[in-house]
Write a structure and sequence with these properties.
7-stranded mixed β-sheet; PyrdxlP-dep_Trfase_small; single chain; phosphoserine transaminase; amino-acid biosynthesis; globular; alpha/beta
Length: 381
């Protein structure tokens, strides 16, 4: 039955199709050079011990490459652990928050981290500043007793960005903790304005999930050490002190997926060779502007994020009016090999969500928009 359904969908003109039809907000497309690197690693690296020199050299190269990409200040370190950013939230609740955290919640992922610290039995209830999807709070609000201020730089679910700057007027040792999962590698950040800038590599870095990395300041390293010496119980697999200890040996506490590390290493090298963070941020601004400009001039479409200054350069959310059946658009695109521009499921909007990560070339974005135009004109009646 599925084959019959697909065969009834219109065939897009071949001349309109992008060279690569993957525009998902995560996992993202993987470049051919990353796959080639994986094939090379298959003969000498995959299937070997992560405690031995070859894999530790790989991890060390990634840590050095990320430090270069983010232009880390003196004393900052790159640490890593398994489980992805969602696991990092639990690690942060154990190893970073001393008593109470404040969160900016303006989408799915900021709210999830807020729930973790709010429910943690060893912490005080979190101070959560909320905004409706498509908008954002004005910013963190310094308050006595808050020792961690946390928010996403880019809310993947809604395509809203938040400035990354240390809040003024906080307690002297308060930490600024930024979720950069869909921002890192595609948006500019001044790392000195953060204490922990953490991410999973399945977005701009074009790798697999299941692992997290973080750029960590001396103040955050001291907080991690302080809490690890306290009487707080911390599971070893969630201990950031354990992650720091192992990262400095260029390894992880438990066994990582080497394929993801190989792909990440190749992507970090590619980004740095192209001009690093400055190049990547400029590229995503250009490709996302194509999407937003298209939506502004298309009568049935509009950017979901109304304030242009708050629109993401890496995850573009576009609403359509009631005359447009976006489910039909998605079906036509997918049948023609253009995939993963579905809206975030919990928003429930008549919407497309288009990732313009660092690996997505301008020509492919232009081709995607041409495919959507053709579908609007020819396939919705």
């Amino acid at each position: 039955m599925l084959g019959a359904f697909v065969s009834e969908l219109p065939v897009l003109p071949t001349s309109l199709l992008p060279a690569d039809g993957r525009f998902g907000a995560g996992p993202s497309r993987v470049r051919p050079d990353q796959v080639t690197a994986l094939v090379r690693a298959g003969s000498n690296l995959l299937g070997t011990s992560h405690r031995q020199a070859p894999v530790r050299h790989l991890v060390g190269g990634i840590r050095e490459g990320l430090a270069e990409f983010f232009d880390l200040p003196d004393g900052y370190d790159i640490i890593l652990g398994l489980g992805g950013a969602s696991t990092f939230w639990d690690s942060a609740a154990f190893s970073l928050v001393r008593r109470r955290a404040q969160h900016l919640s303006f989408g799915e992922f900021g709210s999830k981290f807020a729930q973790v610290t709010d429910r943690a039995p060893h912490l005080e209830p979190s101070d959560i500043l909320r905004a409706e999807p498509g908008t954002r709070p004005a910013g963190p609000e310094p308050r006595e007793g808050i020792d961690v201020y946390a928010w996403p730089q880019n809310e993947t679910s809604t395509g809203v960005i938040m400035d990354v700057a240390r809040p003024v007027g906080t307690d002297a040792d308060a930490l600024t903790v930024i979720d950069a999962t869909s921002a890192a590698g595609g948006m500019y950040v001044d790392a000195s304005q953060t204490d922990v800038y953490y991410f999973s590599p399945q977005k701009n870095f074009g790798s697999d999930g299941g692992i997290w990395f973080a750029a960590v300041s001396p103040a955050a390293l001291e907080r991690i050490s302080e809490i690890s010496r306290s009487d707080r119980w911390i599971p070893d697999v969630l201990s950031l002190a354990t992650a720091v200890e192992n990262a400095r040996k260029n390894q992880t506490y438990n066994t990582p997926a080497l394929a993801g590390l190989v792909m990440l290493d190749q992507q970090v090298r590619w980004l740095n060779d192209n001009g690093g963070m400055t190049w990547a941020a400029g590229h995503t601004r250009t490709t996302s502007s194509l999407v937003y400009d298209w939506a502004e001039r298309t009568p049935s479409a509009t950017p979901f994020v109304t304030d242009p200054a708050h629109r993401s350069p890496v995850v573009c959310t576009i609403d359509f009016d009631d005359t447009v059946d976006t489910a039909r658009i998605l079906s036509v695109l997918r049948a023609n090999g253009v995939v993963d521009v579905d809206p975030y499921r919990k928003l429930g909007r008549n919407q497309l969500r288009i990732a313009t990560f660092a690996s997505v070339p301008e020509a492919d974005v232009e081709a995607l928009l041409a495919c959507i135009d053709w579908t609007l004109e020819n396939a919705l009646s």
